[in-house]
Queue: 4 jobs
Job 1
Amino acid sequence: MLKRLKEPFQYAKPFDGKMAESKDQMAGGGHARSKPRAKNMSGTLKKMWNYLFEYKGKLAAVIIMVVLSSALSLLGPYLAGTAIDHFLINRDSGFAVFLIGMAIVYVFHSLTMWLQSIWMIAISQKTVYRMRVQLFEHLHKLPIPYFSKRQHGELMSRVTNDIENVSASLNSSVIQVFSSMLLLIGTVSVMLSLSPLLTLLTFLVVPLMVLGMKWITKQTGRLFKAQQRNLGDLNGYIEETLSGQRIVKAFSQERTVIAAFKMRNERIRVSGFWAQAISGFIPKLMNALNNLSFAIIAGIGAVFVLNDQITVGTIIIFAEYSRQFTRPLNDLANQWNTLLSAVAGAERVFDVLVEEEERADEGAAKELAEVKGSVIFDRVTFAYEGRASTISDVSFELTPGETIALVGPTGAGKTTLIQLLCRFYDPSSGRILIDGHDTRMIKRDNLRSHMAFVLQDPFLFEGTIHENIRYGKLDATDAEVEQAAKLANAHSFITRLKSGYSTVLKTDGSGISQGQKQLLAIARAILANPSILVLDEATSSIDTVTEIKIQEAMQRLMQGRTSFVIAHRLNTIQQADQIVVLQDGAIIEKGSHSQLLARQGFYSSLVNGQLKNGMLNETS
């Protein structure tokens, strides 16, 4: 984060061709983001079509309405020109009937436009609903390493902003593009049937339109892509700084983070300004070329009328069709930019959907109906992807109900061992056995259902205290929830709250103290009734009085369960059956508290150091 705070302001240049490769920062690192892949519009549109095809019945009805509305749109100008020739110039009868016919045409045109819009909105909302659900489900199937490499806010942006862009495009752009193409083809066909020469003269402006649109879309495509990426980066930064607000204020870094926010906001402003400014030039260009086309038709058409080559009605039809010819081109250009933005969003969504899910359980993997709690680490070695070994040849054994404490300096591999135990990762070599079964041959969900965790930073969800405790066992009764809270020494503080167990906690449990959060986390673990318990720095940063309550609750929780305890404060682990001392991923000492003290080794030096600092009350 600090490196990102110090990065210089980098204002995007509008036409240097490098906007899409601006130096966005990745999660948790501050390293420059790798250059994005080239946009695969055809592939993304094909995937979108697969989603839309699920509603092929309604989609067919929309297409029929689009065809009808395009046909009626073409019929209107033709009838107007015919009226001029037959009823105003030639004085034919039946003008009232003709007017009624025209009114019917325009009424049905409006009806078909309304129906296609309503039906397409329904299709688009169902489509983005499926996409959002599929994306959210897929996120929960991805392995833990995926989330450790990315900002949570950036992932949130894909679930919200990017899918909303897709929704906006499907609501309007899909219909508009299809309708404009039909209208364009129909207009050209009718114009050619009336006067090939005037049609050719009208087409003189087409090359200018194509060149202008090509240049504009080339610029805006790159800028819309950058805008979406910068928005994701900004969301990630906001999420990070709000989550770390205490640290920001503690180190008085408010001005620094605001400056860094302004820098990211500036990137979005610049890319958004140029994307909208350049795309906004399209209507102006089209209007100018449209007026030029109208002038050509009016001037040359007047000469043809004087020479009796065409009628006045035909000139009127051509004038209307010339505008109708450029309008779909204008609409296509405008919707193209919206489509580019939607494709950029859809591509970011599909990038997540193609990420490899957590490796499936082995075909022969089984479920354990009961776990007694025997755990064996047999010559376990593990290395994170692209790194040296974090754990090297670790072996130890626990019988059911034993407590093992993992001790060592930061980075020694304590947390990695726990992540291997619950199969967030699998060993690179060696094996972990639970009740004699290799964990790789136990289904992950089943394995984790026999475990419970009390972590250093307890996580509570937004909801009532009842709901947060019940998260350990969703079908628990109110009485079971309260009994778990009593065993966790949480019942007394809960009942002092105004709404008791119905008290609604805000996000991450804000509103109650860190110690109270920890007591609720212990109650949740008690309710889960696990066979294997993991306590990761559960009493760190807790006041002495609360620590005593937590220690009492943990002793009840650990009773009869195989327990893994990670602790820096060594007074919490003196009664452990085994203490394993880790350094650089390897076991350097192993034994009970008294045995390790007698060896006068690394553990003894840790204990003596804490005694000198008053962090440990020696009882042995």
Job 2
Amino acid sequence: MSKWSIETLSAACAALVLVMLGWLAGAAWQELDFWEHVWLSLLLAASAGTAMWLMRKLRTHLASTRKLLDASTMRYRDLSEAAQDGMWQTDAQGTILHVNERLCDMLGTRAEDLLGHKMSEFHDEATIRRLCPLLRAQEHSCMGELQYWHSDGTQRWAMISGRCLYDRQGMLTGALVLASDITEQKRAEHALSVAHAELESRVALRTAQLQDVNARLSAEIAMRAQTEAALARSEERLQDIISMMPLSLFLKDAESRIVLMNEACEQQWGVRQQDIADGRDLQHFPSDQNVGFQAADQEAFASGQVVIREELVWNAQLQENRRVQTHKKPVFDAEGRPQMIIAMAIDITESKRNEEKLQRSLAQLRELSDHQQTIKEEERRRIALDIHDDLGQNLMVLRIDVSLLHARTATSHPRLHRHAQRVLDTLDTTIRSVRAIINDLHPSTLELGLGPAAEWLIRQMEGRGAIRYRLKISSEAPDLGLDQRQTSAIFRVLQESLSNIVRHAQASEVDVALAQDAHAIMLRISDNGIGMQPGDDGKQAAFGLKSIRERVHALGGELRIDSQAGRGTALAIHLPQARESVAERS
């Protein structure tokens, strides 16, 4: 009850007493005498004074009671603000009436945002029923843990304890709840549980590892015993295998001294191991061979890889040098220092001799092929000259006679004149055929040199088709310093190349470049055709290229072919020029 309500009640009571006394006095005033009037007036005055005194006493008591109540409220507030726990008070309906500063810190919320609101606005129904004393019908107090979210988004915990508040008549007036922050305790408990679980996991893992190590150690001990026995048997078998190997095998130490040889190596060298052991191999092999062996060994140690060489090895039994191919692999110790050389030697003497015989046979075959081509070219030249000298002249004389006959019968014998014209036409066709045969056998322009012959061939090829030809000659001498054999061979190479292009390349342009320097003659033929293609036509073109290659190799030259599908083909021919020809020209 407020200050103004208490004072108003006191004044109303005093006024009521005075009114009642005044009413009683007014009702009895007419019937009383003078002295009774005096006594009644005194009585009324005493009653009024008493009522005023009672009013002053009541005001004084109320003032002192109000001071005590204000002091108690301030102590309660000081106590709640000084408390280490959060505190809030609600009315009977659960509306928050008071919160202390600690609770605001725990929630990260201002007091203004909490006062006048209900806790159900901040927590779910299950949490409210479990922790709010107003909602617990059987108990007047409660206690439990509360998990909540701080305003900064972190998860926190609090220990909640609360009880209901009643007035003197036992009516429920509200509830008082205390909240202790146990976030650090919860975090410590969680970290402790995680550490405990991790520790148990590590202990279990370490135990399993130790058990596994023990099992493997036991197995390794047993395996080592088996390995030692197997190693002894393996060494015996290795010695047997080395001794029975058909290839020559030998071992050398870091100083290139022989430490092991198999039987094949002893037969290859014609000496036993005990005869050249302890460094006596230096007396067995010639000094130049010893120097080569040591150089190969040092090369293998320096490179750290297998070194393959062809070397001459003296065979004491055969009394001759045998050519062998050696494979030397270096072996190093744990510190990386040279330890030994493992070497194998393959006797290639017979294969080298066979290869030399094959090269000589190939050279003889090429010489024979070149000689055949030369003879063939000379025969064609002779036949062309015979046809030119005999058949050509006879045809020319016959044409002159027929021409005279044709001229004389123009007016006198028209029918004979027409027949003579047909004979002249036939003779002209025959003469052209004879000339074509002569040119195919041996063009007369070859007598003028390679340059004029190449120009004549280009003109002949242009007249036969729609391909455009370009010829470039970089030399002042028409014969390019070549003899008749070389000129004919290069001309035939050019003729065969151009024929291949016409038959297979499907080209529209062909470039021919003929150049000469002090040491060689270069011929390059390129087209813009389809390039080399597989198939029957490609096989025919391949035979043409083989013929060209053999002609070039017979002259000591080199042929290079660059062909790309859809981008044409280029043939580059490089012929070394004979020194005699260069000297004659200079």
Job 3
Amino acid sequence: MESFRDVPKNVASDKRQTYREITPAAVILGVLWGAFMAASFTYAGMIMGFTSGGSAIAAIVGWGILRGVLKKGTVVENNIVQTIASAVNISVSGVIFTIPALYIMGMHEEISTLYFFLATAAGAILGITFIIPLRKQMIEIDRLKFPTGTAVATVLKTPGSGIEKARLLFFGMILSALVYLVQQFPLLGLPHVLPEVINIGSFLHLPSWINLAMALSLMVFGMGLITGRNGLIVLAGGALSYYIITPVVKALGWIPSDVQGAAVSSFVYGNMTRPLGIGMLLGGSIAGLILSLPVIAVAIKSIAQANKMGARSRNEELPISYLYVGAGLAFLLLFITAYRLSNLGLGRSLLTAFIGVAWIFIASLLVAMSTGMTDWSPVSGLSLVSVMILLYLTNKNVPLTILLGATVGVAISGAADMMQDLKTGHLVGGIPSRQQKVELLTAWIGPIIALTVVGLIWKAYGIGNDMVPAPQAMALKSMVDAILGGSVPIDKFLAGGILGFALSLSGVPGLGVLVGLSMYLPMLYILPYGLGCIVHELTKKKKGHEFITEKVLPFAAGLMVGEAAMTLLFAVLTVAGVLHP
């Protein structure tokens, strides 16, 4: 498929009128699949503490439906499908890193659900409007890589391969859904055939304080299959926490005599590894901000360049007035939220709104540039820093602080996603203004779905336990509790911060944050995730990178989505009273 940018303008104009692009089929498929991914990835993210973008999955499904079922569809039409689907899905990360902390702390009922919906939906729109003026500079002039966007363009340009990948994806979905269904047989009055967890430590007759239980979860295994080498960092961090720090602490006699058996691991987690993990998250996030200062400077320069060429690109870009409207909307929203949900007063509410808008703008620039250069989007770290700043601005009003933190997280994740999608569109000949419009019209759906799923999971399974660990939210809760209680373990925070800062300066994007996060995950999920990472690397070594891309990744995506969807179905049935765990 030739790019429209490689042909004369008049010919490109004719082709754009001929080729199917924004069609009812593309919009409906994009919204439906995006909503399905948003629900599935919300649950998966609450298990592992991070999510997947889903653009490539949406492109694969798009070819499976458009060409495999409807027997029609163009590259640019499927580009609209993946643009909408990823816009709906991507913003869930901003929700699941923050809002579950309110449920864990029992504060979720202190704010009306309507405010949750409005604040996070507005955040999704703001992230897009704030980044609109930078498209031409980042993509066409600076020619940033945006690796994910480039990979998705490759999928779009190979419809035949896309249909085959869709078959593998759907097979993976069916397999993982069936395995989960068999595991839940006792709930349906059927024989117990397949356990959800196996205790390897008990099988090997290891001491009870050695935590070596593993969840039999194809979803988590699939996430590891997708991640590969970088995910081994999480496995290493978990091993450090559970199999090095815990035995050392026990050997040194730092554990009270009345703490015995399995309680040893919990004691070390609560008093050692958890505060070290928080410190590493903070240290890694601060290092990421410092490393990104040159990026912010370049981004601000890009805005100046974008303004100069505004007249020339008017036919392709949404006007910069969208940015001004977005900034005004953000300020008004944050001001009303701060003023109505607290006793800050007029002046302090205005200051909170101003700093909130400025931080959303800076953070959106940061993630867009960072994603373009490294494909790493530091949403969780920036959300954590946001909450720290806002906690003091709001006089330690925790519900308001976390709500505003969710707004920031949703905005910056949306900004990164839109630039990836626009890179894809640039490579396949899409019209930027059309992609921007469909994102603005649909991005608000994702946060609402994510908030609904969080509430559903809370009612069905609870949050912050072995089944739904929500590590990012647990880290946020621990940090807030320490600040409010005046019991901040400064020595452990400082030690973890220095280590996380140093790791993040190692050249591996987000290394300090990843290792810190792994100290919050139970080995129950770290083990199957790490196993998936190992299988990915061994398969790549034996079969090659192309086999991973063409066969393993779509199948792994299906494993991930199928179990998550089935889990949510069982959660709905549980909340409705049909099932009784």
Job 4
Amino acid sequence: MAERSTAAVDVADNSGDEPLTAQADQSTADGVAQNREWDTDIDEEQGSGGTDGPGKVSPPELHSGHKLAGRYRLEECVTRLDGFSSWRAVDEKLRRAVGVHILPADHSRARAVLAAARSSALLGDPRFVQVLDAVEENDLVYVVHEWLPDAVELTTLLASGPLEPHDAYQMVSQIASAMAAAHREGLAHLRLNPNAVLRTSTGQWRIRGLAVNAALRGISSESPQRADTEAVGALLYAALTQRWPYESDAYGLSGLPKDVGLIAPDQVRAGVHRGLSELAMRALVNDGATASRHESPCTTPEELVKAIGEMPRIRPPEPAFTAPPEYQRTTYQQGSYGRPAPHPGVAQPVPAPPAPLQSRTGKALKWAVSALLIAALGLGSWQLADALMDHGDKSDDTNKTQTTDGNDKSGKTKPLKPIAVRGAQEYVAAGEAQHPADVAKTYDGDTSTGWRTNSFKDGPKIVIKPGVGIVYDLGSDQKVTTATLSLRYGGDHTAVELYATNSLTSSTPLSSMTKLGSVTTTGTSANVTVAKPTKSRYVLVWLTAMPYSGADSANFSDAGYKQAITEVKFTG
């Protein structure tokens, strides 16, 4: 029969319980480690076998090589707990790997597990791990499900850090839509947590354990839609912050500080996308507090899907800028056409360029110019000599690099040229970053977008760190003369400093940089003029003081001392 279910079950609930450690035979230890995402966790209940507990049931005598229904050959035991076992198996009929959950038919939860598996199998939604069979046979109940070797748990993904905004957006969109579809068919999960959410190699998010996980645990709820919606909110919270939104640690994640309550994700970690932060708060049960805009809470997966649809779509990050390879001349252009090719791995001598005017033609030209100069001086034609010297200067300086202070030889002001920005990265001198994902918005030509700082309690001068800012990559060494900033907040006051640095990263300390200029403004623009132009590829725009401004819901900003840079332009 074509059915849907989970590849595994865990029992860590939303209050922060850690799942029980799977107890497997020593001979299958390697398999447990390799297939951790498929482990099934069941309560070890010590009481008598009541209606809600498994009781003491003798496990069936199963071993590697045992066949179920004449086709499912058990290969490796992943979990064995109190009468329940989970296996990696092979469907010999279709020649594919599968997973199998097995319970004795007289297990107190066997009926509920069998009914849940058969119900979820009817959903037919590929966003859920598929149940392939659900059978009672020879005093056993077993549920056969898909085996996804390329899928990775959300738990594993979060071990290395929070998700990027676009990945978190895709995760919550797909999970919420899948749960909305399940609830329309009367199915609830009730055990939705980071162990039950998988990302495949194609980037698709899938859910395991629909209905079955709760049946194995004996879980029910009077408001299943609210429970699953809160669970999706917790998943999003964890994806944004790498923290579990409850006081207890769970799923390898640290819980929130005790006695603080639920605080918004963008207050837990700098740089969190404000729209996603509010979405997580709207889905979580938090005594009516849904974030600064006080949107109505989402109590069903359908409401959560609608809220996601009303958000601006979050685009994937732009690919990193890669400099083009250096131009390589051909052998013919290098003047070695017809010569033997150099042997690979053998260092070749680099021919030194000839000294200026040392060729026969160069010597003749040098003597001719000297003779003309002597003749000009002898005849008193100083105008001719001056013209010749000026001509010589132009021939040696075709790029006009000898002019100074923006003036040419006629005394006219040389027009400044815009310098294109090739990349940027937030500079963090101390503490956490501000909003590093938004730095590209400061040079996208759109003043309606930008990068903002956090809101600080003390000001105008930044107290808790030396400053905040962005390093810009100009692509190559450029002589910067002016930096023009468009700012979002006016008032007393914004202090901007400009530095030349040698790296796009935060590895170079401020003390090792060259200060180019500074300015203080009370308006919404700042023009930093460089007194002594210095060539540099990397330029740091550094804020050391910011004005006070109230809450700005349009830009997801709380009241405090803060600033936002909407556009930066360099000229040279």
